[in-house]
Write a structure and sequence with these properties.
This protein is α/β, with parallel strands linked by helices. Helix 1 crosses helix 4.
Amino acid sequence: MRAVLFDLDGTLVDSAPDLATALNRLLVEEGKAKLPYGVIRDQVSNGGNALVELGFGVKLGEPNQPELRQRLLDLYQENIGENSRIFAGLEELLKEFDRQPVPWGIVTNKPRIYTDLLLRELRIHAAAVVCPEDLGVSKPDPAPLLLAARQLATPPEQCLYVGDHVRDIEAGRRAGMQTLVAGFGYIGIHEQPSSWGADFIANTVPELNAWIRQKIA
């Protein structure tokens, strides 16, 4: 294995606190009660549409959904990066990659505007950052992962993709990459990562770091 690609939210960065703040602010504006943090955290990897449905019961395609989603994203943009952090222990791994060097990048379904803002706030500098706008498709389509591999000048079969959602593992497998589940990410209690077909499930950052270090040694 010569290169590592990460999903962003719930894998590389713990961004749920800022997204939860934005959703609860919107709920209060609409005269609704705030939701518990843990309930919101489980849905963060599913994006803005899922958060709007969680908070308001409004699904994609319903008349007021686009307005609620945009207001949610506007509130998120106001405080993006305020309480988000790289998962503890991963920053050390990224520094090791830069020293060795091991090429690494990010493939996310997060829109480019919010991805770039978050990475800038957290001072994350990846060699490749691929967002849905780059190709007009999102995971589980493997195309974004294949683009990132090309940007890292590494064959897909020599790349690892790390994610916290079944679509991440599906995309990685379809791209011909090794796959790893970030079990410490935003995985709901009813989800079963063991059924996703990943090469490894790391339930903690130390487990993830140890497995990756062994593979790139």
